[in-house]
Amino acid sequence: MILPIINLTNQVSDEKLVSSLNLIGDIILRIPDICETTTLSKFLETFQLDNYWIFPFKDIGSQDIEQVINLLDQGAHKVVIPSFRILGDKNFSTLPANRLIAHITSHEISNIENVKELIKNLSGLVSGYLITISNDETVSKAMRSVPENFLKDFNNFVQIAQKNLLPSGGISKVGLILQSNNSYLSSSLEFIKRLSEEFSAELVVPIDQLTLDSNVNGLLNIADAFTCSLKSDRSDGLFITAVVDERGLLLGVVYSSIESIREAFKTKTGVYQSRKRGLWYKGATSGSVQELKRIQTDCDGDSLRFVVKQHGTGFCHLNTRTCFGDDSGLTALENTLQSRKLSSPTGSYTQRLFQDSNLLHSKIIEEANELCSATTKENIAWETADLFYFSLVKCVANGVSLTDVEAHLNQRAKKITRRPGNAKFEWNKSNENNEEQIPLIVTNEQPTNKIIKMQRFNLSKIDDIKRTSLLQRPIIKSSDILFKVHPIIDDVRKRGDLALIEYTLKFDKVQLTTPVISSPFSPDDMKIDDSTRQAIDQAYENIYKFHDAQYDRSTLIVETMPGVTCSRFSRPIEKVGIYVPGGTAILPSTTLMLGIPAKVAGCKEIIIASPPRKDGKVVPEVLYVAHKVGASKVVLAGGAQAIAALAYGTKTVPKVDKICGPGNQYVTAAKMAVQNDSSAMVSIDMPAGPSELLVIADNTSVPSYVASDLLSQAEHGTDSQVVLIGVSLTPEHLSNIENEIHKQASQLPRVDIVRESIPKSFILEVKDMEEAMKFSNDYAPEHLILHLDDADKWVEKVQNAGSVFVGAYSPESCGDYASGTNHTLPTYGYARMYSGVNTLTFLKHITSQKLTKEGLKNLGYTVMRLAEVEELEAHRNAVHVRIKDIEKEC
Ligand SMILES: NC(=O)c1ccc[n+]([C@@H]2O[C@H](COP(=O)([O-])OP(=O)(O)OC[C@H]3O[C@@H](n4cnc5c(N)ncnc54)[C@H](O)[C@@H]3O)[C@@H](O)[C@H]2O)c1
Ligand SMILES: N[C@H](CO)Cc1c[nH]c[nH+]1
Ligand SMILES: [Zn+2]
Fold first, then answer.
1. Which ligand 1 atom is at minimum distance from the Cα of 720?
2. Mean pLDDT for the chain?
3. How far, in Å, is the centroid of ligand 2 from the Cα of 816?
4. Which atom of ligand 2 lies closest to the CA of 662?
5. What letter does residue 573 receive in the DSSP assignment?
6. Where in the numbering of this chain does the Phosphoribosyl-AMP cyclohydrolase domain appear (predicted)?
7. Catalytic one among 370, 756, 782, 812?
């Protein structure tokens, strides 16, 4: 093999030759000065080289180290530095050894004793040597007969180098530069062969002494130079050749001959040797041609690898891409997406992704988030597959191939200056000291200078499809989340407290010794300031009052017919679990909203679960409320693990009968999972989702009030849903509201959240209240605010909503905290069939009946007849045996 060298101070014009040399490996570029890179840039612009070394003519010093790093970062495979510089200047010894080649001159190896010392010192600092033999006589002799002395010394050198060079234990490259005016006659092939066979070395050959053509006097044919050190182990002299694509995937196995290799170099296409038909120009008849990217020999030089870009249907004559059948994995996916891009069925999901970049981008972000949250091997593989799929759709949509992506990876692998790799501010979770807790739905990043604005639609201008889409909430992939929470639930069920403690460490980064604290709680842990206590006490009173009033403690008694009395009475659910979210906010208000109705109902045991603070304690405000509502225990855990502990019980956590409370997707999914497990014997309040608000406003509404209400829910999370229905609003009124939204939002501490939730929210202009109420009832919002002149009048038209706020002075925040109503309400449209949490949530009703003899006489024949109809004789008989007696008595 040879190492071509190009002197950039000379004109290089033979593009074909350079690109063919690029096929076989490294090319050394001699540049005048390490700092003069204009010539180099121009050259690289013309000739896209894969692997090149930089070898400056001018000596370099410490001041050049930055430039050396620059060149390596920009793609130089290796840099050749004089050995004395590497040894004499510490800066150079800090460069990565696998990218450094030591330049050694002949006088440095003339005394073999010195060589040992030299090699020992260079050991581990470089990955190869470039040795210049500058004595003309030596060179000319070498060309002709290879002087024994020289080879002996050189042999010694290589052996010493191979023994001493670390870390690889062997040298990857020894290049030999023969500085001579002599031309490289074909006789030098013998020399090249010996160099590579005996010494694993290569002859450095100037490009002007190389040719692509055969039989050019005084020039060396590159195919010959390439093949001279190959040795076929076949009687026909052919070489087994593996043909792979640019990503290294095997397309098929063929044969090459010296002649076919020569043709491949010349045409830069896949040319092979057919044993039956001679030279085989792949694709000449089928059109499935191959662009040649690289030719490599294997470790012992008896077989080849052609790296090609395959065009057309594929490599195999059976029209598959490979001779081993169809591709799988990413390659197969790429092919499928490429064909879907050309023709996919209308309405197919992939086509939707190609056409709707917003949808595609949201999916990429969603999947990236889910991958970050994945913990088990299976989940990580699953989420990565999802992310690869959507990323590849983006690539294919924009004509980017997997090869392009891998080219970047390879390029980056060459960089030695590493970026710090920190996440951009908005993605930097490390400050929270809780890397796992990533918002579950994050949408496109919003520039901070952008107007914070809701989308606007006019009901008279949209069609039914659009109206229906406005009524919908984002799809929750509950199956994916369930897939993640099931292993957590099973684990807590099996290993109890131990698992609970482990998951709290994993997800909340808190090491606990016990997962539960029991009442009486320590006063020190409940210490809060006076104004907070007063506010909590006031809220407690109002909420208590309203929820107490909901409790009808009387027994319902009805005599349905003479002697037949039916009654109904309520009983508290004995043990209830209350989940108080704690991932991103502290929520004493939620503790009030769940604890008070449970207390009013008279539940015997109230157990609160909430993720602990970083110090392993419960937020004092939450503990204060826990104490006020009479909770017996607080479980220091969140997420699916807390729900599992409440559902199945552990050594320290009592099993409960019902679990109530909002939470993130893990909490909701876990609640649904345990409810569906009949062996858990546990019920839940309702499925929960992101907070929602729908405001109906007319021209009497105050723009700043309307905007403040919308923002109060929009600040909950990036997935909050807020809707404004404007009833025949004037354009000025509407723009006043929009201006207020932007103004107020810009001043909020949680402006980053609002920047995401507000642009996803919308204003719907309608002509009258009938249209407004119809839309609102169809939407079934969690909260409904009526900012109307005659707001009271419209309450009776409300059919579906979690809680209603009537008139300009009823902000939704009052219901969230302290007016008395409950803030745990149905979201996602569930207001159509669910009520919010109330006192009844913690009660069950038992009915009873009492029949006198007279009553049974009056009812007995009806029951017996119906039992006959159902052919349930025992039922009939239970009445019959009594009726018989009664009739006997009469
Ligand atoms: N509707 C309501 O009445 C109401 C009231 C208050 C809060 N909320 C909602 O409740 C939610 C609270 O969510 P939150 O995250 O702040 O707190 P959270 O307590 O619901 O969730 C935190 C827990 O999630 C678990 N978790 C986090 N990352 C995980 C992962 N990768 N895998 C498995 N588990 C993981 C952890 O165990 C952590 O303790 C918000 O969506 C908020 O809007 C609703
Ligand atoms: N609005 C939320 C329910 O959708 C509850 C809440 C708690 N704190 C403030 N708000
Ligand atoms: Zn709220």
1. 43
2. 87
3. 5
4. 3
5. -
6. 253-324
7. 782
Confidence of residue 448 (pLDDT cuts 50, 70, 90): low
Q: What is the pLDDT of residue 481?
A: 81
- Structure confidence at residue 439 (pLDDT): 32
Tell which one of 536, 543, 587 to mutate to probe ligand 2, the residue whose CB is within 8 A of the most ligand atoms: 587
AA letter at 419: R
Ligand 2 neighbour 816 (Cβ under 6 A): yes
What pLDDT score was predicted for residue 149? 61
C-alpha 72 chain-centroid distance: 31
Q: How many CB atoms lie within 10 A of CB 276?
A: 5
Question: To 5 degrees, how large is the angle CA 859–CA 865–CA 870?
Answer: 125
Using CA atoms of 311, 315, 316, 317 in order, give the dihedral in degrees to the nearest 10.
60
C-alpha 665 – ligand 1 centre gap (Å): 7
For the chain, the 3-state helix, strand and coil shares in percent, each to the nearest 5, are 45, 20, 35
**pLDDT tops 60 at residue 208:** yes
- The CB-based long-range contact list for 288-295 (8 Å cut-off, 24+ gap) reads 288/312, 288/313, 288/314, 288/315, 290/243, 290/315, 292/23, 292/264, 292/267, 292/268, 293/23, 293/246, 294/23, 294/24, 294/50, 295/23, 295/24, 295/226, 295/261, 295/264, 295/265
Instruction: Verify whether ligand 2 is closer than 6 Å to residue 828 (CB atom).
Output: no
79 token code pair: 């840099």
Tracing tokens 């007696």 back to the chain, one arrives at 885
Integer Cα distance of 54 and 15 in angstroms: 19
Residue whose Cα lies nearest atom 26 of ligand 1: it is: 639
pLDDT band at 475 (very low <50, low <70, confident <90, very high): low
Q: Cβ < 6 Å from ligand 1: which residues? A: 373, 436-437, 507-508, 581-585, 587, 590, 611, 638-640, 662-664, 666-667, 688, 690-691, 716-717, 823-824
Tell me the CA–centroid distance for residue 825 and ligand 2, in Å. Answer: 9
pLDDT band at 148 (very low <50, low <70, confident <90, very high): low
Eight-state DSSP code of residue 764 = E
- The atom of ligand 2 lying closest to the CA of 824 is 3
pLDDT digits (tens, 9 = 90+) for 86-103: 888 877 877 888 888 888
Ligand number nearest to the C-alpha of 585: 1
Atom of ligand 1 minimally distant from the CA of 585: 16
In this structure, of 252-256, 429-433, 604-608, the range with the lowest mean pLDDT score is 429-433
Residue 636 CB partners (closer than 8 Å, separation 6+): 504, 510, 512, 515, 516, 517, 610, 611, 612, 616, 617, 618
The pLDDT value recorded for residue 210 is 86
Catalytic residue among 547, 783, 787, 823: 783
Strands 173-178 and 692-697: unpaired
Nearest residue by C-alpha to atom 10 in ligand 2: 816
The interface pTM score, or ipTM, of the predicted complex is 0.97
**Residue owning the nearest CA to atom 24 of ligand 1:** 639
pLDDT at 358: 82
Structure tokens at 589: 């208000």
How does residue 431 score in pLDDT terms, banded at 50, 70 and 90? very low
Is 782 a known active-site residue? yes
Whether pTM exceeds 0.80 = no
Contact 95, 102 (CB under 8 A): no
DSSP 472: P
